[in-house]
Write a structure and sequence with these properties.
By secondary structure, the protein is mainly alpha-helical. It has helices spanning 3-20, 25-36, 39-52, 57-70, 77-92, 99-108, 112-123, 139-143, 178-185. It is elongated. The relative contact order is 0.14.
Length: 194
Amino acid sequence: MRKGSAFALSLALGCTAMQAQALDPSGKRYVDQLVQGGPVSIREAAQSIYHSGYRDQEVLDVAAEVLLQKYRTSSDNTSADAMAWVCKALGNSGNGRYKPVLDEVVATSGNRKLDKHCGGAAKNLPAGTAGYRAGSVSLDAYRKGQGRPAAGTPTASKAAAVPQGSGSFEHVRVGMSMDEVNALLGTPSATYLV
């Protein structure tokens, strides 16, 4: 086998392996809140993504799709606030993939709060990268527990799947619930109130 062919084959196999890995517990929780929940759940997920600096592209793609499907119908304060937080979470990612999404919301929303937060978030993102395209993620598939980005959509490289009870603190993130931490580290032998 020629050197170039071997490299191409190993690259293709590596990309397939990365795409097949599952979301970590935080990512699963965020996706569930974004696709299953109402405005309050969406806002809480987006706030947590924003404050923790969570940057998994699959989760952010779901957030972008939720934003694109719901921002036009965000007439009440709670819904508009939820969509504003989604804008802030996407802007905080540093991924220019979401700049066109935020620019579209600003150009077409007609909501001052959304315009302000999405416009500010878009300024944090670099231009010139291939943007997220509406419909690249099927929210219905995620609702049914079958969600993955549509075929041909690039996904971010994922960390290796973490076995339950691995005992590795490096996978613990700010914003995780106690159940998620216990799933990663195992159930504690004792707990104390401080």
